[in-house]
Amino acid sequence: MSDKRIKVIYFSTGGSEVRHANFSWRKFCLISIISFAIIMLVVGTVFAVFTDFYHNFKIESLSRVNTILTQQLSEMDNKVREMDKRMGELEMRDNDLRVFVNLPKIDEETWKVGAGGAYSNNDYELRFLSKETGDQTLAMNLLLDKIQRQIDLAQKSQKDIERAANEKKSLWAHTPSIQPVAGRISERFGMRLDPFIEKVQHHYGIDIPAEVGTKIHAAADGVVEEVQNSYLPNKGYGKYVVIDHGNGFKTKYAHLHASLVREGEVVKRWQVIAEVGNTGRSTGPHLHYEVHQNDRPVDPVKYIFN
Length: 306
Ligand SMILES: [Zn+2]
Prior knowledge:
- This protein is an alpha+beta fold.
- The protein has three domains: 5-70; 74-173; 190-303, Glucose Permease (Domain IIA), CATH 2.70.70.10.
- 41% of the residues lie in helices and 24% in strands.
- It has three helices and 13 strands; from the N terminus they run ββαααβββββββββββ.
- The strands form three sheets. Strands 5, 6, 7, 8, 9, 10, 11, 12 and 13 form a nine-stranded antiparallel beta sheet that branches. The protein has a two-stranded antiparallel ribbon with strand order 1-2.
- Helix 1 (25-100) runs parallel beside helix 3 (131-173).
- The longest helix has 76 residues, at 25-100.
- The protein is rod-shaped, with a radius of gyration of 49 Å.
- It starts with a strand and ends in an 8-residue tail after the last strand.
- The chain binds zinc ion.
- Zinc ion binds at residues 187, 203, 205, 207, 288.
């Protein structure tokens, strides 16, 4: 193969005149390959240096981020521990309230684990963290999980307490607790000398002397069960009213001058239901007041708190 020559036109360094050079093909190829190699080497080196610089920059930046995240993790860890402590205080308060409304206490073991199953997170990825950070993350996760279950438990308990408190409030409203007429108690509950037959007999209520027409108040919320307006002179209770308070409690107001309620009427504590009188077997104007619990008369004084 003949070595063909090649003519190269180029500008001199000054750029003012055009010059010519003649090369053989072989020489031209050699120069091209060497030039290409040099260019590749230079580009490669620049690229490597830049990549190295970029990686270093990135590592430094990630390291900074890592330091910040580790600090943040520690701070969060402290906060979570503080939350755990406060949950303990909440537990004590919750149990105090439960005792107050007659609910059984939630035992410590139940509180410790909260309601529901145990923590079950795949901790495989934690292996990539340092041991300290990994342990801290795992412990925090477990603690947060426990706190979450405790919050669920506390929310449920709060509902129970609310319901029990309402029931208690309602029970209290329906329990006789006031003296229906203000004044001195002249005859107490128990054995006494009957002024009519002059024999010792059981007195099933208390007597409170008062002027005829004195207002009589219902001892608790309830429903009027009986209103008796007809009576025989000098016999029995005279005119009387019986209120059913529910939960086994009933109250009876006797020797009335007048009743001011109807059978089936819903009454509230302190509502005026009748007037003091002297009807039936009575030696003078007074209220004869009885409290019955499960159909047995009990001492009304035990149900007077005002
Ligand atoms: Zn009496």
